[in-house]
Give the backbone structure.
Amino acid sequence: MKMDAIIGAGGQIKQDDPLTELMDIGISKALLPIAGKPMIQWTLDAVSKTDQIDNVIIIGLNKSHNLSCENKTIYYLENQDSIFENARAGCKLALKLKPTADKVLWISADLPLIESKMLDWFITTVKDTNHELYYQIIDQSVMEQKFPQSKRTYTTLKNRTVCGGDVSAVNPNIASNIHPAFKRISEARKSVIKQASLIGLWPLILMLTKQMNTTRAEKLIQNRLGLDGIFVDTPYAEMGMDVDKPEQYQIAQKLLQIR
């Protein structure tokens, strides 16, 4: 079965956003013009070229923005109160479209450098396995070899330093049925103390002392949240190259103009 894709496009430019020099406050970040197109349209172009994605659900925009995704049906949802509520709404619609679906993709709208072959790789990697959440990690060496001036934010684990990717897969039943993990994360989203309490003091110490590895992190997520999640080692730096800063915009703009 083909997967459906949810594209999160609800983020708006705020007063303290580094991208205010490129866009007006209050405008959707996904609509940032880059190399002649809204940023989200580059993402949709990649989605349109893979045969493994069926429907596309865009959260935070509407038909008036004249987006296109060839050979796919686009559904629009209004922006909710948070990324968690957006995920919940997207998953509910995905289940309405395909009641037996056990995986949907979540793709950030601000990934203009992503290509269809990268989406195909990720879908092929996860589709025949049975977990509730698949989260990308990209080694610092992979990211900096491709984008040495990207200024990503990294997390140091035992024997490796990584950043997160911006494509994930999730079992839609988690969000739509208010899975305990989803509810706890949502409730903690505005409190650092509550976020820390989800995993506890010892894991934080492990991470700060660089003793945490991905296997221990996965077990931690399972034990603390009751969520069967795994990390997906990703060889494509473009899947973590979201545009958050002007310097990242300039990198993407240059590469897209060449493309």
